[in-house]
Every structure is written in structure tokens, then in C-alpha cells.
Design a protein that fits this description.
The chain is an alpha/beta fold. It has 13 helices and twelve strands. The strands form three sheets. Strands 5-4-3-10-9-8-7-6 form an eight-stranded parallel β-sheet. Strands 1-2 form a two-stranded antiparallel ribbon. Strands 11-12 form a two-stranded antiparallel ribbon. The two termini are 60 Å apart. Residues 291-348 form the AFP-like domain.
């Protein structure tokens, strides 16, 4: 298990739900605060942003990803796209305070050294590492030196690369690590999800595990919770039609709330794994189960044969599983057809 703020995260705790605002604020602090409000409304445990300085993140000649071009509808450089999506460090300070006031955990993913240092300086509770930086060992080592819990996304990775990242962090003394299975397409097609890999990661490395979802809709993150995800992360937006690279693959506020409610319903239904009847089933049990009854009128002194027995509702009498115990017994009174049979109506 790991601890982020006051929340314990692990197999015996509720799923930790991260509402991923990312850059869906479009560089506007007012929109960022509205996203916080919507995450609180939906019931998420944390709201997560992305912190970066474009000059330190990307070269001027780096091209946009295909999904970014498809979602925005134009082709530009990554730098120009990202520059429009930045929030200043002072705005992030304001945003963190706003989250504290709203009683939701503030998280953000740093994409380079300077932003990691900044987030540490304002007392971020944990670091979320993007899938793109899973193999960025220098950044992982730098963040590990800040001695905070780390949530690591594993899109585009194989197990060996996850192992290298974990070894890097553990060699730096970090034990509070969670690994999220992820498919780095936006949106991700269902046939690419491979949701069972989430538990493969958990079992292979003995870590807190979860799922960062990029599929459309809420079905797959709810399914991940049913499979045992300790953490669920999902992009959300105020409006899917807004301009920007991630809006189209995000949930709108009501959808996010439906996802959170669905995950909580799954958690309630999972129970503790002990197979036993519920107290609420007792009345149904008495109606739906059957008791041993007389197949015909039986006279006092008759010896009971198999064909003298029948099995009918209600189930508040002698269970049919005891039928062999009645065969060969002598009736000590007259018994009417359909009368429930008990051991007391037979001679010892």
C-alpha cells in the first residue's frame, strides 16, 4: 500500500480516483478552477494537472502526435501547441490552494526538472510520472530525490522497461510506488486496452496497481475497478468540443460523476469474498427453498418409503437434503398430504 495525503491506497482500501484535468484548462486559470469544481462535484479523490515549461520540454522542431493533429484539426509544432496550454508557476500555487480549500488532493505531472522542483517546493503530496517519461531515468532519479510517493504510468512499455524504472526508484529509496497500466492512444480502441495486463504488473512487481484510461466512455475504468484497480485515472473536460488536444478523449462532468458512482457501486458489490448468505436473503430463502412434505395421506404406523415423500415450498421446514433419514421411519400419527414432515412425527 502507499499513502497520499491522508489516503491509504491498496487492496484493502477504496479505489483512489484521479480526475485528470491535464491541459484541458487551455491555459486559463479560471477554467482550471472550474475543472477542480467539477472533480469535487463528481466525487473524485484527486484532480491532476500537467506542469511544464514548453522551452524545457520540447524542441522547436518536434512534430505533433497524430491524435493531436486529429483532435485539434490543424498541424503545428508541439512547441506552439503546448505553449498555449501552459499555466504559470504562480497560477499553479493558486490552483493548489484552491484545491485545498475545496478539500480535494492536488496532483500534477512534471515533464522536466524545473517543474518537478517547483511542484516539490509547493508541497505536492505525490508525483505522477507520465508514460512518456517511464524510460527517462535522469528525471526519475531527480524526482526520487524529493522522497515523495510516485504514481508511474506505463503506456507504450514492456515489463522490462517497467522493471528498470522501478529499480531506479527503489535504488533511490522510494518504496511508495504505484504503477498504472495504460494504452497511450487518445482515444484508445477497446482491442488495444489489454486490461488484464494491469494485474500482470501488480503480480510481477508486488506494487500498488491501477489503470489510466484513454478509452471513450466509462465502461473500461469501471471494469478495471472490478478487476482490482487500486487507482483509476481518467481525463475529463468541461466540454468535449473545446479546442485542444485532449478534450475529445475526455469525459464531461456528468460522465465523470457517473464513472465515480459506478466505481463506488462496484466496490460495494465486491464484498469480502466469503461465500455466505446475506441477511436480506433470509425471507427469500424461506419462500424459494423447499421442505419435505407428505406425497399422500399417511396413516399412523405406516413405514415411510421414498415415494411417500415430496418437496415443496415454503422452505421453513425440514430440508430435502435429509430425505434419506426419513425412509424406513414409522409414523407416530396420521399425516396429511402436503404436511411438512419433521423427525418428531416418527417413532425413534
Amino acid at each position: 500500500m502507499i499513502k497520499i495525503g491522508s489516503r491509504i491506497i491498496g487492496n484493502n482500501s477504496p479505489c483512489f480516483i484521479i480526475a485528470e484535468a491535464g491541459v484541458n484548462h487551455n491555459g486559463d486559470i479560471k477554467l482550471a478552477k472550474k475543472l477542480v469544481d467539477m472533480a469535487v462535484y463528481a466525487g473524485a479523490d484527486a484532480v491532476k494537472f500537467q506542469t511544464f515549461r514548453s522551452e524545457k520540454l520540447v524542441t522547436g522542431y518536434a512534430k505533433m502526435a497524430k491524435y493531436q493533429k486529429d483532435n485539434i484539426g490543424i498541424e503545428d509544432s508541439q512547441f506552439n501547441m503546448l505553449k498555449k496550454l501552459e499555466l504559470s508557476y504562480s497560477e499553479f500555487k493558486e490552483l493548489k490552494k484552491y484545491c485545498k480549500d475545496k478539500e480535494i488532493i492536488f496532483l500534477s505531472t512534471p515533464f522536466e526538472f524545473e517543474s518537478a522542483d517547483f511542484l516539490s517546493s509547493i508541497g505536492i503530496e505525490a508525483f505522477k510520472i507520465s508514460s512518456g517519461d517511464l524510460t527517462n531515468i535522469p528525471l526519475l532519479e531527480h524526482i526520487a530525490d524529493m522522497n515523495k510517493p510516485i504514481i508511474l504510468s506505463s503506456g507504450m512499455a514492456v515489463l522490462g522497461e517497467i522493471e528498470e524504472a522501478l529499480m531506479c526508484l527503489k535504488n533511490k529509496g522510494i518504496d511508495d510506488i504505484a504503477v498504472l497500466h495504460c494504452t497511450s492512444n487518445y482515444p484508445a480502441a477497446l482491442e488495444t486496452v489489454n486490461l488484464k495486463a494491469m494485474n500482470t504488473i501488480k503480480e510481477a512487481f508486488g506494487v500498488v496497481g491501477g489503470y489510466s484510461d484513454h478509452t471513450e466512455g466509462i465502461t473500461i475504468p469501471i471494469a478495471a475497478a472490478a478487476l482490482g484497480a487500486n487507482i483509476i485515472e481518467k481525463h475529463f473536460t468541461l466540454d468535449k468540443n473545446m479546442e485542444g488536444p485532449d478534450h475529445k478523449a475526455s469525459l464531461e462532468p456528468e460522465e465523470l460523476k457517473q464513472m465515480v458512482d459506478g466505481i463506488r457501486s462496484v466496490e460495494i458489490s465486491l464484498g469480502n469474498g466469503v461465500k455466505r448468505f446475506s441477511k436480506s436473503e433470509i425471507s427469500t430463502m424461506q419462500v424459494a427453498r423447499k421442505s419435505i412434505v407428505a406425497f399422500r395421506n399417511i396413516n399412523k404406523g405406516e413405514i415411510i418409503k421414498l415415494e411417500d415423500l415430496d418437496y415443496k415450498r415454503p422452505g421453513d421446514g425440514l430440508s430435502p437434503k435429509y430425505y434419506k433419514s426419513l425412509i424406513g421411519k414409522k409414523a407416530n400419527k396420521n399425516i396429511n398430504k402436503d404436511e411438512q414432515l419433521t423427525f418428531g412425527v416418527f417413532e425413534d
